[in-house]
Amino acid sequence: MSNALLSDRQAALAKVNDMVATKRHPWRIVFGVLAAVVVVWGALNLWLNPALDHATIFKYLTAESILTGVKNTIVLAVISMVIGTVGGYLVAVMRLSHNPVLRAIGFGYVALIRSIPLLVLILFMGNLALFWSRVDIVNPFNQDEVWIGWGMNDLVTPFIASILALAINEAAYMGEVIRSGLRSVDQGQREAATALGLGSGHTMSKVILPQAMRVILPPAGSQFVTMIKMTSLVSVIAGGDLLTEAQNIAATNLRTLELLVIASAWYLLVTGIATIGQSILEHRLERGQRRVSI
Amino acid sequence: MAPTTLLDISEVHKFYANHHVLQGVSLQVPEGTVACLLGPSGSGKSTLLRCINHLESIDAGRITMDGTTLAYEERNGQMHQRPRAKVDKQRQDIGMVFQHFNLFPHYTVLQNITLAPSLLKKASKAKATARALELLEKVGLADKRNAYPSSLSGGQQQRVAIARALAMEPKVMLFDEPTSALDPELVGEVLKVMKDLAAGGMTMIVVTHEMSFAREVADSVVVMDGGVIIESGTPAAIFDNPQQERTRDFLRHVR
């Protein structure tokens, strides 16, 4: 509030009786102080713990293999998220389709994938070679004639297996997020677009999706932040992510705690940037909408 | 010479599951005339309107515009639904205005109006914008071109919705209870735009509860009940000298 406004207010209030005092908020101060004490105490206690070797942390914080791990974690998360979102969109459209077979396929996919723990899925993908050792494209009339073929371990490297597992998993969850977003758009919007003669493609891309985005984006943002952290699971198949690299170093210098601190610091930074990006995007999507605060 | 029939609705039947909502409805709307559909709620008048632009499918009968069957085509002695792209093409000639406006909240007033013309008729952006501004002038909202729908009153939103439908230069305009969701003091501004439109020679089918509008503007008044047309005629005939007991009963209740 500007000073001019403030003095207007004071001038107006000076002339009236029974002026109501500004409401005080003592509990805000109490909670604020409490939180600050707990955070500072906790951080100091961890940081000053004699088990922690600070030199190791600083030595490896920006080590080349750690930075490679950070890069791989980001690449893994982004690629898996993009594939998972496209897949999720298809799942959502199937689940909302008039075609009962497509609806059943969408439902079955979500039900199946959500019931398999991601860790198990990652282990499956990392061990595909146990199912099929090779992928060969053969002459259909002469099965012995192999036109082109790959060994499974060359085709599906640990990195590819990680992307497959994360994307397949993500598609199921994003499918649900996108479905609820599409359903949140009033039926009248679709009718208005249809009545104007817009085809189903234009109706979706110009009318339904932009409005669904407002509902989709907040949970999709948390899905992405979760995804960044879930990439650490692929360390079980040596997926080349941040945790894999940290564990590799820890295996040689036995400084497990320090390398976990390093990994945590990087995860914190990357998810922090993702969270900021998410709020900027959400802000931009609020065009034309009244803000509501609860 | 009598004006040619633009819209010919013939023996249309429609079921919702086992509920027979339209039980053989026939109606001719000559070019440049206004038909008002009246009737108690659940009589099928909104459903009839929504069948014209195929927001609802029909189970029997046919609706033709300018002699072309809408949404369906005859093959091997049976009616089959046309492909979606063809139906969408036909819908471009049929403007529709909804009870709840259904403006696109993420677009400005101007963008609401230019969206369909620029996507479908491939009018240049400049041309579509010029036409949209003309229409906004006509509905008295030129100064709101950059506003978002949420900042407009209901009456203003409905006038934008009318402009949006007109931007496609339709041959007929369908109004589905256009003033039912409005505060009483905002009804007049919307009805005025509709009167101007009628005076300009637009063919209109209006589902409404505004009896004074129907009396003043309609060329024909159609009273529906229980999925059939129980009576139709000029406003004078229907309002001053209704022949059917159910019409008299309905008019008594709305007056």
TrEMBL record, chain A:
Report the main location listed first in the record. membrane
Question: Which residues are in the ABC transmembrane type-1 domain?
Answer: 70-278
- Read off the PROSITE patterns from this record: ABC_TM1
The topology of this chain with respect to the membrane is: Multi-pass membrane protein
Give the transmembrane region(s). Answer: 29-48, 74-94, 106-135, 155-173, 259-281
Keywords associated with the record? Amino-acid transport, Cell membrane, Membrane, Transmembrane, Transmembrane helix, Transport
Q: Does the keyword Membrane apply?
A: yes
Entry GO terms, CC: ATP-binding cassette (ABC) transporter complex
What is a GO molecular function of this protein?
transmembrane transporter activity
GO biological processes: amino acid transport
Question: Where is this chain's protein located in or outside the cell?
Answer: Cell membrane
Recorded protein name is ABC transporter permease
Q: Which family does it belong to?
A: Belongs to the binding-protein-dependent transport system permease family.
Q: Which NCBIfam families did the record assign? A: HEQRo_perm_3TM (TIGR01726)
From TrEMBL, chain B:
Give the principal location in a single coarse category: membrane
According to the UniProt record, one GO cellular component term is:
plasma membrane
Recorded hits in SUPFAM superfamilies, A to Z, give: P-loop containing nucleoside triphosphate hydrolases
Give start and end of each ABC transporter domain. Answer: 7-251
How does the protein's chain sit in the membrane according to the entry?
A: Peripheral membrane protein
* Reactions listed under catalytic activity: a polar amino acid(out) + ATP + H2O = a polar amino acid(in) + ADP + phosphate + H(+)
**Record carries keyword Cell membrane:** yes
Checking Pfam families in the record gives: ABC_tran
Indicate the transmembrane segments per the record. none
Query: Which Enzyme Commission number(s) are listed?
Result: 7.4.2.1
Top-rank taxon: Bacteria
Which leading EC class covers this enzyme? translocase
Which family does the UniProt entry place this protein in?
Answer: Belongs to the ABC transporter superfamily.
What's the protein name? ABC-type polar-amino-acid transporter
The organism's taxonomy opens as:
Bacteria, Bacillati, Actinomycetota, Actinomycetes, Micrococcales
